[in-house]
C-alpha cells in the first residue's frame, strides 16, 4: 500500500452530514435551528449540550428523519445520514439507518406489549427478524443495558429510570448505524449512567455513530470524543471535550461546567490552582492539579 | 399553616408482588427540606406517593399534620400535599397554560382573588407569562416540567413533593428552583425532593435520606449520608464531585459545597 492510500477502515462518506440546516416549528416566531453545518465521522461519540429550548431535541429529530417527516415545519438545508438524504428518503428507510431514543420513554414504549422482553422484540418483529436471532439479540441487549431481571415485568410497572433503560434497549436491539439519544439517561442513577456511557463508548469503537443530547458533563468528559454546544439554535462551540467543557461560555449559555472547573477557577484567585495548568474538566485532572500544588510547597 | 410528617412502619407491595417498601420510619419537621435519593427502582416514588394518598400502606401509618392518610381521601390530602409528578404528562390536564396553573387552586376552593394572585405569581416565577394561552402539550418537555411545578406552587400547600424536578433542566431553572426553596422554607413548608443530581443535593439540602431496596439505609446531613460508602455503593450511587475530590485529596473535612471546598483549600494553602 502506498503511503498516500487511505486507511482500510476509512469511510467514503461521513455518517452524518448536515449543510446549512434551518428549521422552524409551525406558528413559532423564531427558528429552532439556524445555519447548522456538521460532519460526523463514522464511529464518533458526540455529546450535544445546550440550555432548554436551545435546539437539542430538534437536532436529534433532524438527525433521525423525524424532522421533516413527522414534525412538520419550515425546513431548509440538507441532512444526510448514512448517505441517505432525509428529505427525499422515507422514514421507513431512514429508521433502518438511525434510531432515536426519545426524551420521554413513555412517548416511545408502545403500550401494546405486556412485558419488557416483548417490548424489546417489537421493533425486531416489525423488521421480520427470525425468531431465534430475535431471542439471541434481546437476551444480549438486556444484559448490556442491565435489565435482565426486569424481563417479565410490565413496561408500566417500572420506575422512571427503568423505563428509560427499556426505551434505550428497544432501540439498541435494532443495531442502528447511527444511534441518537435525547437526554435518555436523565433519570438514571450513577451506576446506570456509567454503564450506559461505557456501553455507548464501546459501541462507537465498533463503528456505531453515537449522538447524545446530555447534561452529565463528568461522563461526557470521560467518554465522548467531541462536544457540540447549541445556543438559540446555533452551534456556538464544537471541539474535543477537554476544550469545550472548560469554556466559560458554558456558564453564559446556562449549560454550566463541572464543579471541578468552577472551584479551580475560584481557587486561581488565591493561588489554590496552579497558574500553568488549564482548568480541570474531570476528576483525575482535578486531583492531579490540586495534588501538584501541594507537592510543590 | 405548617404541618409535620410522620411515617411509621410503612410497608407496601404492588398487588401480589414483592415488597417495595419495608418498615420505613421517617419524621419531617415543618420548614424542613429533604432530599430523597436512591438507585433506580428502590422505591422513592412509591414512598412519596403515600404522602398524598395515591398509594395506601400495606402496613404502617402515614400522618400529615393531624391527618392520618388512611382516613383521608386523596382529594382532601391535596389541601396539604402538593405533588409534582416525575413525568409532567401524567399531571397536565388543561388546554391552556393559564388554566393549568389555576387548576389545583380552583379545586382546593380558594376565593377568586386568591386564585388570581397565586396563579399570577406562579406564572411570573417560571416566566410563563408569554405562554399563558399555549396548549401545555405544545411546550417542550422541559417547559412542561416547569409548568407542572408552577401549578403545584399555585396550590400553596404546606407540604410540597417534587419527583425529579431537575431532570432536563438548565442553569436558569436550577437558580429559580433554589430561590423558590428559600421562599418555601421561610413560609415553613415541608419540601421533599427526589433527585439523582447529587451535586445539586449536596449544595441545596440540609438533610438527605438514602433509600435502598425499600428501606432507609442512611438519614442525616449530606456529608453524613455520602460517607456511608457501602450503603451508597449498594444503592448504585456515586458521591458528589467535590466530596469525592476532597476524599481523594485525603482531607479530613467532608466537603459538599464549593464554599466549604474553597475554605478548606485556603486552610491547606496557608499551611
Provide an overview of this structure.
Chain A has 297 residues and is of the alpha/beta class. Chain A has helices at 56-62, 66-69, 91-94, 116-127, 131-145, 160-172, 190-205, 217-223, 241-244, 249-252, 259-267, 283-296; strands spanning 16-24, 33-40, 45-50, 74-81, 84-85, 98-101, 178-182, 209-213, 226-231, 234-239. The N and C termini of chain A lie far apart (54 Å). The relative contact order of chain A is 0.14. Chain B has 271 residues and is of the alpha/beta class. In chain B, 38% of the residues lie in helices and 21% in strands. A six-stranded mixed β-sheet of chain B has the order 6-7-8-3-9-10. The longest helix of chain B is centred in the middle third of the chain and has 16 residues, at 171-186. At the A-B interface, helix 6, helix 7, helix 11 and helix 12 of A face helix 5, helix 6, helix 10 and helix 11 of B.
Amino acid at each position: 500500500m502506498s503511503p498516500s492510500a487511505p486507511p482500510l477502515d476509512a469511510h467514503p462518506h461521513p455518517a452524518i452530514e448536515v449543510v446549512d440546516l434551518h428549521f422552524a416549528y409551525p406558528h413559532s416566531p423564531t427558528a429552532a435551528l439556524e445555519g447548522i453545518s456538521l460532519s460526523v465521522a463514522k464511529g464518533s461519540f458526540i455529546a450535544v449540550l445546550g440550555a432548554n429550548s436551545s435546539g437539542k431535541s430538534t437536532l436529534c429529530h433532524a438527525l433521525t428523519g423525524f424532522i421533516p417527516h413527522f414534525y412538520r415545519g419550515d425546513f431548509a438545508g440538507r441532512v444526510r445520514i448514512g448517505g441517505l438524504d432525509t428529505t427525499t428518503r422515507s422514514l421507513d428507510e431512514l429508521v433502518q439507518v438511525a434510531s432515536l431514543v426519545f426524551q420521554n420513554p413513555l412517548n416511545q414504549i408502545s403500550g401494546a406489549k405486556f412485558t419488557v422482553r416483548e417490548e424489546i422484540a417489537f421493533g425486531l418483529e416489525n423488521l421480520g427478524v427470525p425468531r431465534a436471532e430475535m431471542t439471541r439479540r434481546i437476551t444480549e441487549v438486556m444484559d448490556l443495558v442491565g435489565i435482565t431481571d426486569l424481563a417479565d415485568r410490565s413496561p408500566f410497572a417500572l420506575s422512571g429510570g427503568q423505563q428509560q433503560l427499556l426505551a434505550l434497549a428497544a432501540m439498541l436491539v435494532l443495531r442502528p448505524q447511527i444511534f441518537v439519544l435525547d437526554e435518555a439517561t436523565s433519570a438514571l442513577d450513577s451506576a446506570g449512567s456509567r454503564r450506559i456511557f461505557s456501553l455507548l463508548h464501546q459501541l462507537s469503537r465498533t463503528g456505531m455513530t453515537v449522538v447524545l443530547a446530555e447534561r452529565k458533563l463528568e461522563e461526557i468528559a470521560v467518554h465522548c470524543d467531541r462536544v457540540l454546544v447549541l445556543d438559540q439554535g446555533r452551534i456556538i462551540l464544537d471541539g474535543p471535550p477537554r476544550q469545550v467543557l472548560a469554556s466559560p461560555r458554558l456558564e453564559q449559555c446556562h449549560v454550566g461546567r463541572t464543579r471541578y472547573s468552577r472551584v479551580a477557577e475560584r481557587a486561581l484567585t488565591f493561588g489554590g490552582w496552579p497558574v500553568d495548568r488549564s482548568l480541570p474538566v474531570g476528576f483525575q485532572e482535578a486531583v492531579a492539579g490540586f495534588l501538584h500544588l501541594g507537592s510543590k510547597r | 399553616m405548617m404541618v409535620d410528617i410522620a411515617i411509621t412502619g410503612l410497608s407496601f407491595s404492588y398487588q401480589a408482588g414483592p415488597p417495595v417498601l419495608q418498615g420505613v420510619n421517617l419524621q419531617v419537621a415543618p420548614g424542613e427540606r429533604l432530599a430523597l435519593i436512591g438507585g433506580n427502582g428502590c422505591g422513592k416514588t412509591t414512598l412519596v406517593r403515600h404522602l398524598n394518598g395515591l398509594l395506601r400502606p400495606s402496613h404502617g401509618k402515614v400522618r400529615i399534620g393531624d391527618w392520618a392518610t388512611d382516613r383521608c381521601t386523596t382529594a382532601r390530602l391535596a389541601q396539604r400535599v402538593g405533588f409534582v409528578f416525575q413525568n409532567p404528562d401524567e399531571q397536565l390536564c388543561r388546554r391552556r397554560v393559564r388554566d393549568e396553573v389555576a387548576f389545583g387552586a380552583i379545586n382546593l376552593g380558594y376565593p377568586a382573588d386568591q386564585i388570581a394572585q397565586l396563579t399570577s405569581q406562579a406564572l411570573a416565577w417560571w416566566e410563563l407569562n408569554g405562554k399563558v394561552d399555549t396548549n401545555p402539550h405544545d411546550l417542550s418537555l422541559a417547559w412542561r416540567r416547569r409548568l407542572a411545578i408552577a401549578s403545584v406552587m399555585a396550590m400553596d400547600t404546606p407540604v410540597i413533593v417534587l419527583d425529579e424536578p431537575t431532570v432536563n433542566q438548565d442553569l436558569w431553572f436550577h437558580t429559580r428552583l433554589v430561590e423558590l426553596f428559600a421562599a418555601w422554607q421561610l413560609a415553613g413548608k415541608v419540601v421533599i425532593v427526589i433527585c439523582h443530581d447529587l451535586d445539586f443535593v449536596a449544595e441545596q439540602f440540609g438533610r438527605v435520606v438514602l433509600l435502598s431496596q425499600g428501606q432507609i439505609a442512611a438519614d442525616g446531613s449530606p456529608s453524613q449520608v455520602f460517607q456511608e460508602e457501602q450503603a451508597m455503593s449498594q444503592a448504585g450511587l456515586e458521591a458528589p464531585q467535590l466530596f469525592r475530590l476532597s476524599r481523594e485529596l485525603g482531607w479530613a473535612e467532608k466537603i459538599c459545597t464549593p464554599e466549604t471546598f474553597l475554605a478548606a483549600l485556603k486552610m491547606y494553602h496557608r499551611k
